[in-house]
């Protein structure tokens, strides 16, 4: 027999009495918690934070109304029953307890989202006082976050705002102001709308202000408020004085009287002790406790826990602030927030016309951001799921209609018949992609992993056989190259054996999930050792390639011929990176096996093997993460070196490309297109010259100071200015704010810890580098700089890393926006491109599509696509539709493509709904 089962928090195991606690959250939903009768306030706060998956929970608190009608905070140290004694039907409210002076310091988007909900509540309840124009702007940000862009077709008049209360005594005139402000916010994502709203709100006088009525020593009515910087005194809603924490020597209360003792050098205009009187003792003590907690949270670096007083009688209140300070919270969150799971921002339906029809027309074609998954399945979550499902059904009536065949137009191809071959998978299900058994679901995972392994095998053979054969004479002299090809050849053999083992699995056997997981676990050990050995020396191997390329003309000619051959669709260095990232798909496959088994109710016994495989692969990924990033940086520098002329060598283990992009440089009369390359030690300005980029200027980072970057308006264009020792450079860009932030961040990082690097210098003549072709072929990937130049966009270091790690292959049907039929193709997504093959047996792609600035979504009603599982890629007036053979493949393609297409634009509402439901 096992030990006693753990009960709810705070339960006495001998008595086991429970109480039901209701908490109204910031989104106005109600969560119910069952706690023991001895549970403290800290227990309830932890349960709420766990329920919301809230990491920065110390900014929040729980408020309730006591038996005297006062709004008080729940004390963490006391039991809940002791605090609510004498009250009936107590309901706690989750509130923002500590308003941070700069919301941008909050690490997590979800915390900023909750803070925006609190501002919304304060504004609607009349606590947040501001001018009508400011209130209208704040309300417009709320509407933009909830509804998306303004559309005159959907919102012809301000009546769409009448169902939502923004301010007390809301009028039609105010709603007209909100609508006018809403029109000016087109293009803002929900996250951007929240951030800009918080930036406006924090500059208002009543940001974070909760007034407490009192009187001064002369009997004049006043209102006190505590905030991050100290205590403010208001008279008729005007701030008449402020006592900062630096001025206050001691803060105490005696019955109804609050005493503020000032430092000797701070009360020239005041008495030594300032007194205020409250209506009751409890009101006075309540405000004093809030002051103590604000001082401890914002002013202290850490709070010391005093010893317990052993005296029988004590003088004064024993209340002290025992939580984490803001400094401790920031340090804790920065260590943990990167491992957090994404959250989905709930769609609000409080606006009259921002429902289904408007989102199809574009008004709601905005990102759905992320909110933690709730652990408690209460009625709020059920209603949310029902609402989302109904919205999805309204958006995709054809996709959810079982009588799909009656809607197929002439000239369209039946995917079921086309993909019913040995090299494809027939995985359509009657219930919109959900498998009828765990065996069928795991079979989809097996088929998908087999396709990825088969595609990767072609790249490994291309290097270990074809390239090796061409440069065989050189590998005899350079043993490092021979050693690298030996590792690659071993990986090729391992891939072949693994594919054979996958084919040998009995796909209809009931124990397929266990056997599949056992196969991954058994193969992961040898594969991990091979991958580690190759990764450990990969930078050395690539450096040997580079040195040989620089010094040997015959080797340079041979390598160029190979890279210009039709079958080499990527530069050699990125083909090597693809081979290095083989095990990513293994880890994802193992995790989906676990997810599938859990969804069908299996216990730990059935999950053991799959979990062991996932843990082993996850440990390998975490252990090699830093080495892989260094490899990506090294490969990026080699590619940039190839594309630039007139520059000294860039490659160095400590050098990183932070941002690259096309800008317009002001040259007096006009703006001239230029290429801006920001490294962690320098800034390079270049312009296109023939088939390369000529370097015009190199600015060393040590010549720039923290305030060197600013945003300005120049010649009616949004620009950013860069102040150097010699001159001021002005650049225009559609990503002006992002450039300014990246430059400022790079300068600060260099100032704190300058890297030890050789200075980049301009040189005469053309230098050459390795691993790229000089002629742009339509069936090959564009270089990073060429992509930025042709699309006028920017690429960050993190985006390049994502492009290196995210790849996918599979059989799909493709259709252009202007065509009537579907074409069967084998498509490979790698390095930010889509490569199109007639079949998986083709040695070379027909054409390559650069995905920078493309948007990934699902078709809308205007696209007139009468099939399910269709992915839409669009850029300006160009649109591609890709139809997958199953809902499982559809989800995998969405996941893979969004990193190349929408790294700065999350999925729109319709696509997010179709993915999550």
UniProtKB/TrEMBL annotation:
Record's subcellular location: Cell junction, Adherens junction; Cell projection, Rhabdomere
UniProt keyword annotations, A-Z: Guanine-nucleotide releasing factor, Repeat
GO cellular component assignments: adherens junction
Main location: other
InterPro entries: Band_41_domain, DBL_dom_sf, Ez/rad/moesin-like, FA, FARP1/FARP2/FRMD7_FERM_C, FERM/acyl-CoA-bd_prot_sf, FERM_2, FERM_central
The keyword Cell inner membrane is annotated on this UniProt entry: no
One function term, GO molecular function aspect: cytoskeletal protein binding
Segments forming domain PH: 805-902
UniProt cross-references to SMART domains, sorted A to Z: B41, FA, FERM_C, PH
Domain FERM: 19-302
CDD domains xrefs: FERM_B-lobe (cd14473), FERM_C_FARP1-like (cd13193), FERM_F1_FARP1_like (cd17098)
PANTHER family: FERM DOMAIN CONTAINING PROTEIN, MOESIN_EZRIN_RADIXIN HOMOLOG 1
Name under which the protein is recorded: Moesin/ezrin/radixin homolog 1
Organism of derivation: Mesorhabditis spiculigera
